[in-house]
Amino acid sequence: MKILFVDLEYDYGVAARGPNFIGQLGFMQAMKDLGHEVIPFYYDSYLKNGSGLQEALLKKADEINPDLITFCLFQDQFKKETLLKLKEKYTTYNWFGDDAWRFDSFTSEYANCFTYCSTSDKFSLPKYKKIGHK
Prior knowledge:
This protein has helices at 21-33, 50-64, 80-89, 99-110, 125-130; strands at 2-7, 37-42, 68-71, 92-96, 116-119. By secondary structure, the chain is α/β, with parallel strands linked by helices. Strands 2-1-3-4-5 form a 5-stranded parallel sheet, with helices on both faces.
C-alpha cells in the first residue's frame, strides 16, 4: 500500500525541539515495518503559510496518488475544504489523540472531513456516533 504520511517533521514544527518522535518512530515506522511504501509530507515550513500548505498538499497527493493519506492533526493547519477534497479522491485517516479533553472543541469540527478516524479515548466513541461518524 502506498501511504502519504502528513505530519510535522519536528516536535511542534520547531527544529530546535528535535524530531517528532511519535510521528516518525511511532506511526511512520510502524507503517514501514508492515511493508507499506510511506511517503512523508512534512509541513513544518508551511506553518506560517496556510494557503501555500493547502495547495502543496493537494498537489503532492495528486502526484503520489496514494492508497491512503494519514494525518495526526493538532491544530487547524488544514482547511476543511482541503481535507474534504482529499476525502473525495482518496481514503483519508486521522488519529485524534487528545479526544479526552479536545473532542468538543476540535475533533467534532474535523472528524467528518476524514474517511476514517481513531481515538485514544473510548469515552469519545458515542460522541463520534452523535456527529454521524461511523
